[in-house]
């Protein structure tokens, strides 16, 4: 398999999951600015939408959208329990988290990263995001991970988007459960491997 990624972007989530799953995967760097690969290939010729993550399977089929890619990867190694069993309520809870993180957190960061966003609009975006993270803080009380003691694909996604706050003036340092959780996830060997591979960890 080939996973196209950009350092620290939302593609970090499937990168972490691939490492956790122990699946053979080639990680291919894409520039978010030039939309080119390191060899000069136009990324739009590979993924017409031009964004990461983008997964190419061994048989040539492709998958896009991070929350779907992580489900696919997790289902290849059910014994790792990165995603609960099909039909179980626990699985729906993880999918619920993936959707929440994707729509309420991930997409909400968008205006803060876009150069053209009016400055007077950004405080209201930060305020809304802050409220969502305060809710997440409550959900993490007494838990190691979002689902309790078991690390799942939703944790890889939350870890990834939570790391963006420092780049856009969203201070989350006073949320103790979240900070302890991020340290816990960040210390996992597979997470460290993904961060190191993306040049985000010395």
UniProtKB/TrEMBL annotation:
Residues 1-81 form the GST N-terminal domain. Its EC number is 2.5.1.18. Keywords: Transferase. GO terms for molecular function: glutathione transferase activity. InterPro entries: Glutathione-S-Trfase_C-like, Glutathione-S-Trfase_C_sf, Glutathione_S-Trfase, Glutathione_S-Trfase_N, GST_C, Thioredoxin-like_sf. Residues 87-202 form the GST C-terminal domain. This is Glutathione transferase GstA. The lineage of its organism: Bacteria, Pseudomonadati, Pseudomonadota, Betaproteobacteria, Burkholderiales. The gene is gstA.
């Amino acid at each position: 398999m080939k996973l196209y990624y950009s350092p620290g972007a939302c593609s970090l989530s499937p990168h972490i999951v691939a490492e956790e799953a122990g699946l053979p995967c080639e990680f291919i760097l894409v520039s978010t600015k030039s939309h080119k690969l390191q060899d000069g290939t136009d990324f739009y010729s590979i993924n017409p939408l031009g964004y990461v993550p983008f997964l190419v399977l061994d048989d040539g089929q492709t998958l896009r959208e991070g929350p779907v890619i992580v489900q696919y990867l997790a289902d290849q190694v059910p014994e790792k329990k990165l995603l609960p069993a099909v039909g179980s309520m626990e699985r729906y809870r993880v999918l619920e988290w993936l959707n929440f993180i994707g729509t309420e957190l991930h997409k909400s960061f968008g205006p803060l990263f876009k150069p053209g966003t009016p400055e007077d609009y950004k405080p209201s975006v930060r305020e809304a995001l802050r409220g969502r993270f305060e809710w997440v803080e409550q959900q993490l009380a007494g838990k190691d991970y979002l689902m309790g003691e078991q690390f799942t694909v939703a944790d890889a996604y939350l870890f990834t988007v939570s790391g963006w706050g420092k780049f856009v003036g969203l201070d989350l340092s006073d949320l103790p459960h979240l900070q302890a959780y991020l340290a816990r996830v960040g210390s996992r060997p597979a997470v460290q491997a993904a961060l190191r591979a993306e040049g985000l960890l010395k």
